C-alpha cells in the first residue's frame, strides 16, 4: 500500500499499520477537502458573533468563561499548544506518533472539527516527509483527549519544538523548511481541534490488536509443540468436546491445535493401552480454554477499535447541520477499558505458557527427558535459567495487568474531574505485548529441544516445520552455550511471524 486516501470514511487497521510502520504516503480525498472547507465556513461565521463560543471566542477548560477579543485569538491558539506541549519522560516510539498523527488527520478529514484546509494538509505533508514530532511518555490523562502528546505534534506543525527525521533530532522549523512545508499559524478553534482526541491510545490499540492476533496463533503453535513433546493427548481438543462450551475463541484455538498436531508420530506412539495417563495437566489440557478466552477478549477489543476508527472526536464539534456543540466524546473510557482487558489476557496467556515450559525441565513431570533438557545434567544446566527469564517476564506481565482505567485524578481546577488514564493503559499494553512475545519464544525454544530429544519419534509435519525454521537460527541439543543469543533469535522469529508461517505452509492458515 503506497498511498492511502484519508477521507470522511473510517480508516482500517491495515491503513493505520501501513502509515505507522511502513511509511505509506497519505493524501486528503476530494470529499474530505470539501467537508473541511464547509465546516471551516461555520467557524468563520461564528468568529464575529458577539455570543461566546467555546474554543472560538473563549478560553479553555476551567477558563472557558473568559471572553477572548478577536485580536488575541491567534495568540490564544498558539498559547494553548505551547502550554499543553508539557510532556515529560522518555520519547514515544515513532510508529505510535505516526499512528497518532494519521488518526488526528482522519478526524480532521471528517469535516467535524472546523480546521482550515491548510492545517490538515500540513499534517499530511509532515507524515509524507517523515517528520516525527518528539512526544514524551507522560502527559496524557486520556480525557479531553491525549492532550500533551497531541500538543507536541501541533507544536511541530507550528514550526516549534523538536522533531526527528531519519532518526536525527532537529528543530521543527528547520525540518519543515527542508521539506518545503510552511508552518501553520493557528486560528480560531484549531488548537482545540488538534488536541481533543484519543488518537494516541487508539493508535496503540490498533497496533496492539494486530500484534496480538499473531501472538494468539503463536501461542497455539507453542502449546501444540509442548503437548506433543510432553507426550500429552490431543483427544481433549476434539471439536465435539469443545462445542459443549461454545465460545468462538476456544473453538478456533482447539481447531488450530488439531491441525498443528495432525500426523504426529510422537502422539501416535502413546495412544495404545500401554499409556496409563488419564488426564494431562491443566496447562496442556486447558490450552484452548485459556487461549480462547484471550481470543474473545481480542475480538471485543477489535470491535471497539473499529468503532473508534469510525469516530470523529473533538470538542466542540461541528455537526452535520452546522451547529457547534460541546460534548464528552473525548473521554477515553471505551478505549482504556479494552486496553486493560488485553493486558490481562496477555498476562494469562504468558502465565500458562510458562507453566507448560516448566514441565519440560522437571524430571518428575517431563516423561523421560533429561533434567532441564541438559546434555549432561549437573555439568550442564540446559534451559534452567531460560525458565527464570520466563518467570521474570510473567511476573512483570502480572504487574502490567493491573488496570489503569480504574484510576482517576481530577485536573483543570476540577473542571475535568474524571479522566480515563487510557494513555497509561496503552503504554503498559505495549510493554505487555513485548513481554508476551519473549515468553512464547522461550516456550517454543524449549519445546523444540524436547521434540529433538524424542527422536527417533518424529513430530507432526506442522510442528516439525516450525522446529526446522527455528533450527535455521538456533542449533539443536548439545552442551551448554551462550543462551541469550538463542533467546533473542527465537524472539525475532516469533515477532516476525516466520515460525507461524512455517507451520501454516504445511497445515494451512491458522484461525
From TrEMBL:
Its EC number is 4.3.1.3. Keywords: Cytoplasm, Histidine metabolism, Lyase. It is found in: Cytoplasm. It catalyses: L-histidine = trans-urocanate + NH4(+). GO terms for biological process: L-histidine catabolic process to glutamate and formamide; L-histidine catabolic process to glutamate and formate. Gene3D superfamilies: Fumarase/aspartase (Central domain) (1.20.200.10), Fumarase/aspartase (N-terminal domain) (1.10.275.10). GO terms for cellular component: cytoplasm. It comes from the Bacteria. The modification 2,3-didehydroalanine (Ser) is found at residue 144. There is a cross-link at residues 143-145 (5-imidazolinone (Ala-Gly)). It is an enzyme of class 4 (lyase). Contains an active site 4-methylidene-imidazol-5-one (MIO), which is formed autocatalytically by cyclization and dehydration of residues Cys-Ser-Gly. InterPro entries: Aromatic_Lyase (IPR001106), Fumarase/histidase_N (IPR024083), HutH (IPR005921), L-Aspartase-like (IPR008948), Phe/His_NH3-lyase_AS (IPR022313). This is Histidine ammonia-lyase. It comes from Trebonia kvetii.
Amino acid at each position: 500500500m503506497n498511498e492511502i486516501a484519508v477521507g470522511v470514511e473510517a480508516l482500517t487497521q491495515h491503513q493505520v499499520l501501513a502509515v505507522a510502520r511502513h511509511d505509506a504516503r497519505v493524501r486528503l480525498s476530494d470529499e474530505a477537502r470539501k467537508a473541511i472547507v464547509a465546516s471551516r465556513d461555520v467557524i468563520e461565521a461564528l468568529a464575529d458573533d458577539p455570543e461566546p463560543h467555546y474554543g472560538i471566542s473563549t478560553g479553555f477548560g476551567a477558563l472557558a468563561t473568559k471572553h477572548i477579543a478577536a485580536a488575541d485569538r491567534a495568540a490564544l491558539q498558539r498559547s494553548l499548544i505551547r502550554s499543553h506541549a508539557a510532556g515529560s519522560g522518555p520519547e514515544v516510539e515513532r510508529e505510535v506518533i505516526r499512528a497518532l498523527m494519521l488518526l488526528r488527520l482522519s478526524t480532521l478529514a471528517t469535516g467535524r472539527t472546523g480546521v482550515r484546509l491548510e492545517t490538515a494538509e500540513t499534517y499530511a505533508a509532515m507524515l509524507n516527509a517523515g517528520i516525527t514530532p518528539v512526544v514524551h511518555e507522560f502527559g496524557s490523562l486520556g480525557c479531553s483527549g491525549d492532550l500533551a502528546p497531541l500538543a507536541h505534534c501541533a507544536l511541530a506543525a507550528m514550526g516549534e519544538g523538536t522533531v526527528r527525521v531519519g532518526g536525527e533530532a532537529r528543530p521543527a522549523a528547520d525540518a519543515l523548511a527542508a521539506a518545503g512545508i510552511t508552518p501553520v499559524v493557528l486560528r480560531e478553534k484549531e488548537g482545540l481541534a488538534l488536541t481533543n482526541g484519543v488518537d494516541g491510545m487508539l493508535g496503540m490499540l490498533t497496533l496492539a490488536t494486530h500484534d496480538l492476533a499473531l501472538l494468539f496463533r503463536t501461542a497455539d503453535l507453542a502449546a501444540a509443540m509442548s503437548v506433543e513433546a510432553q507426550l500429552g493427548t490431543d483427544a481433549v481438543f476434539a471439536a465435539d468436546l469443545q462445542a459443549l462450551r461454545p465460545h468462538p475463541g476456544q473453538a478456533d484455538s482447539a481447531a488450530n491445535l488439531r491441525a498443528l498436531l495432525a500426523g504426529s508420530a510422537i502422539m501416535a506412539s502413546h495412544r495404545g493401552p500401554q499409556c496409563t495417563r488419564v488426564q494431562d495437566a491443566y496447562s496442556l489440557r486447558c490450552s484452548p480454554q485459556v487461549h480462547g478466552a484471550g481470543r474473545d477478549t481480542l475480538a471485543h477489543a477489535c470491535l471497539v477499535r473499529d468503532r473508534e476508527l469510525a469516530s470523529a472526536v473533538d470538542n466542540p464539534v461541528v455537526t452535520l447541520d452546522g451547529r457547534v456543540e460541546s460534548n464528552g466524546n473525548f473521554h477515553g473510557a471505551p478505549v482504556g477499558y479494552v486496553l486493560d482487558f488485553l493486558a490481562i489476557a496477555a498476562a494469562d496467556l504468558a502465565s500458562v505458557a510458562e507453566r507448560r515450559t516448566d514441565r519440560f525441565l522437571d524430571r518428575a513431570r517431563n516423561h523421560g527427558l533429561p533434567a532441564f533438557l541438559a546434555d549432561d545434567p549437573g555439568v550442564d544446566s540446559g534451559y534452567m535459567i531460560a525458565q527464570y527469564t520466563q518467570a521474570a517476564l510473567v511476573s512483570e506481565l502480572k504487574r502490567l495487568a493491573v488496570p489503569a482505567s480504574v484510576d482517576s485524578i481530577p485536573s483543570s481546577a476540577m473542571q475535568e474531574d474524571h479522566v480515563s488514564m487510557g494513555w497509561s493503559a496503552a503504554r503498559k499494553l505495549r510493554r505487555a505485548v513485548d513481554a508476551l512475545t519473549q515468553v512464547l519464544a522461550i516456550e517454543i525454544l524449549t519445546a523444540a529441544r524436547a521434540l529433538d530429544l524424542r527422536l527417533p519419534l518424529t513430530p507432526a509435519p506442522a510442528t516439525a516445520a516450525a522446529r526446522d525454521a527455528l533450527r535455521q537460527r538456533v542449533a539443536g541439543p548439545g552442551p551448554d552455550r551462550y543462551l541469550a543469543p538463542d533467546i533473542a533469535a527465537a524472539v525475532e522469529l516469533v515477532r516476525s511471524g516466520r515460525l507461524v508461517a512455517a507451520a501454516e505452509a504445511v497445515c494451512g492458515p491458522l484461525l
